[in-house]
Amino acid sequence: MTWSTAAAVPSRAPAASAADERRSAATASVALYGFVAWIGTHIAFVLFVLWAYLPERVLHRLGVLYYPSQYWALALPCHLMVSVAALYAAYWIYNLSRLPPLDDFANVIDEFSNAPDERDLAARGQQERIPPIYDLPITHVNAVLFPRRPAGRAGASSSAG
To answer: Residue 77 has what pLDDT?
Structure first.
């Protein structure tokens, strides 16, 4: 006697809802459109290469009598590449024209800056937690990087020789 427990165990997979079915149908249609586009681009590329490299007599023998001049097989990709390069250059020049001058204060601070208070800077070392992110004022950065030396000590290291 053989026991089959497959019918006795209930399925643990949840029933597919209507939203899941719509989502899977949409995914299937997008996949189908993508596959058709992939095949179409390959066919178009093969036709382009055949048109570009086959002599006119072979095209006439195949029954292809109306087609653009083969000059465009070389000219069109060259025009496209120059256009892309020109767009990159134009975009770069546009961005450079929108920058403020190097000596402008807008390079240091703007309306989105989050400057700390003086007490935040003073209490920075006393906190155990990670402090919030601030844009450090340029005066504070300069004070840390370029500390003021007393006037009498400026030449002491060079005359010790």
So the answer is: 92
